[in-house]
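Reposting from the mailing list since nobody answered there.

I have sequence plus structure tokens for a pair of proteins and want to know whether others read the tokens the same way I do. The first protein:
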Amino acid sequence: MTTSHFFFRLLRRLVGREDYLLAYGAGQRVLHVGCVDFSTTGDLHLADAQTLELPGVAPFDVIVAVELIEYLPSPGAFLTAARPLLKPAGLLLVTTTNAYCRCRLLRVAPGVESVHEDHVAYYSHRTLTRLAELSGFAVVEQLNYRLPNRRPLLRYPAQAPACTFSANLGEGIFAALRLPATPPPPAPCG
């Protein structure tokens, strides 16, 4: 393990999902795919997650996919379909349940597999990064988030220390993805 990797893990913080999404979307043209647990006062458009067909309304500054990719049979196709809908410096914000969250891991030892019946896949920081790269995106930022506070005394006192110990112990993953900058055109000959 390199020193920079170690410090990167310690600096990865636990954020509130909705607050972070709202901060990224403030004053931006936003496409929200999935429409789960998110509100905005900006320019909001809706699209079907399987097709992302929005004739005449692209491009967007921000595309938000909250708790969506774990339900999709072809998440790479979804990410690829999002590319032409983004402005050149636009962001695709993805949140998903963490495959290795502390609560899920604690259930493994007694043999209880914690899997939502409608989920197709779970992601870790590394697998979400790999999916983004295979779909032509670069990861700008990746953080842990906490889910809405349903049982504050049971869950959250251990959440922040767990995330400091290992990024893979947070309840959810927030990733800001961006298309790589296009290379400059070739210099004219002569």
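The second protein, same order (residues first, tokens after):
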Amino acid sequence: MRSVARRIDHVNVTTPEELERDMVAWYEEVLGLTRIAKPPGTRPLGAWFSCGNAQVHVSVDPHNPPKTAHFGVVVDDFTGAIERLRSAGCHLEQAREMPGRKRCYVRDPAGNRIEILAFEDAPAPADEEEI
């Protein structure tokens, strides 16, 4: 059976309004994502970032994020990414071991959980038609 979905377009993380600036700075400076313009018709608060072929949207919402909900970011240099996160003062959460990948979790300033992972053997690129 063929999937209806072709690829992930974006993920959305939330933050209370008082942490909006910290969140935008964290995604730019700590994760190194590129901020992009939000299209007309979107809410004025928050920010959008590019991440490979997908986007990360930061939205202002007073509700706390769920404890285990998360999205994953693939990095080329796992050790370098860990060093960058630690030097930014991030607490790293251990992840269960999975064959063929190195991984851990980190939380952004509003508590959203992000999996940082690197594949030991680079996975074959996903065919957009077969996801």
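Reply #1 (J.P.):
I read it the same way you do. Residues 10-123 form a domain with the 2,3-Dihydroxybiphenyl 1,2-Dioxygenase; domain 1 fold (CATH 3.10.180.10).
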